[in-house]
Write a structure and sequence with these properties.
By secondary structure, the protein is α+β, with helices and mostly antiparallel strands. Helix content is 29%, strand content 44%. The chain has five helices and eight strands, in the order E-H-E-E-E-E-H-E-E-H-H-H-E. Strands 1, 2, 3, 4, 5, 6, 7 and 8 form an eight-stranded antiparallel beta sheet that branches. The radius of gyration is 17 Å and the shape is globular. It starts with 10 loop residues before the first strand and ends with a strand.
Length: 162
């Protein structure tokens, strides 16, 4: 079934603007499902240079891991909150929503590259942190890295300047 936005004037249709939301965001909320049971989780992430995938890390065991392993299809949302507009009964925001396929990154060099990408996204001085964490082989092997291949993506905004 195809849906359309009820307020098409709020759609973000420019790919660069959609990528800007993903580049400037810090957390993504993911909806997952296993055995007809939904699960919602928020994780830190980084966007790859091509703008086609998000990466995050998690433990190699637990609820998030089990859900992704059972059903790799997810729905995600990155939300930039611009705040409530007093007296207008409205809100300023920019959001990107997407369908994605979750793939566990297995190759050590790819895991290291994804973890370095995440560190660079968050750290103002990333190199010492990269050296400290990625220089420890046990730290890399003990973490799961997930690549979310973006399959479908839409954006919406209200009262934000482009």
């Amino acid at each position: 079934m195809n849906y359309h936005q009820r307020r098409p004037e709020r759609a973000i249709t420019d790919r660069d603007q959609i990528l800007k939301v993903l580049h400037t965001g810090n957390v993504v909320t993911l909806a997952m499902c296993r055995n007809n049971e939904p699960y919602l989780v928020t994780v830190n992430y980084a966007l790859d240079e091509a703008g086609t995938a998000l990466f995050f890390h998690c433990a190699k065991q637990g609820k998030k891991f089990d859900y992704l392993f059972a059903n790799p299809r997810v729905w995600g949302q990155v939300f930039n909150d611009g705040g409530y507009l007093e007296g207008e009964c409205d809100h300023r925001y920019r959001t990107v929503q997407f369908a994605a396929e979750a793939i566990f990154v297995q190759e050590e060099s790819a895991k290291r590259a994804a973890l370095a990408l995440m560190i660079r996204h968050f750290e103002p001085n990333p190199e010492p942190v990269i050296e400290r964490f990625l220089g420890n082989p046990e730290a890399v092997s003990n973490v799961a890295v997930v690549r979310l291949n973006l399959l479908q993506i839409t954006g919406k905004e209200s009262h934000m300047t482009k």
